[in-house]
């Protein structure tokens, strides 16, 4: 059955916010953000200020997916930290209001970049934005999870063991075709898993440039968005996710930096970005980075396979883009296999 994720019951939302959100006054106008495939997100404009509503999609969903309650909790915990996030207002867990759980946060104005090459900026601006991305990532991994109340935000034990298990199950639950490279990658990620080095930090789970809002005039980050995949885990997964995206083809479709002269553009090499991150965290370097990179390609293949399955089931947030994105599953699987074999 097709489920409408493109619209919102505006009257129900307005009535609920008038009752539950201090300072809320209509009239309210609603616009859906077209970016993002997982949790439908809407701008709520009012005369006094603008808000964002992010909801769990209606319909039949994979277990543990679309956890907007976790997104709300982690961003609320990070307020006042060195990791910039939007101000959280309220979480509505009553499905009867609009048909699924949702939360309300401030709208953060600023710049958002769809491509890491940032074609409209100067080399100095590109370098500044990318270094700020590095700073925020290191800050995220140095958050005291006990002090902010997130020590129970993820299970104990080997992060990569449980993540490979989780995404293997989710991939198989949404599998629509046989991809030999994906099958081999899933097996190798189990066989080649490094020993646990004891690092246990907050991780974003989908850390990349287009999930960040930057100041309209400076290179300062004003908010990190899309925390659905966040948990307590291993920080190198977030770092490898950045490098993973950069290895994809340049342009609006691949949204990577493959084939670009990064030095001429004012952008760091993979090695320079990793070295800056290690300096900020006081690390001497990272062994076997290819495993973490292979893992990130695998997880992204699992994510976009889920997007494709929702499109085929008529339950995608942006159906046309979902079908295009789904075509990348075999490519991500092969990239992951290559990275893992390189070590």
TrEMBL record:
Residues 29-255 form the Aminoglycoside phosphotransferase domain. Pfam families: APH (PF01636). Coiled coil: none annotated. InterPro entries: ACAD10-like, ACAD10_11_N, Aminoglycoside_PTrfase, Kinase-like_dom_sf. This is Phosphotransferase family protein. It comes from Sulfitobacter geojensis.
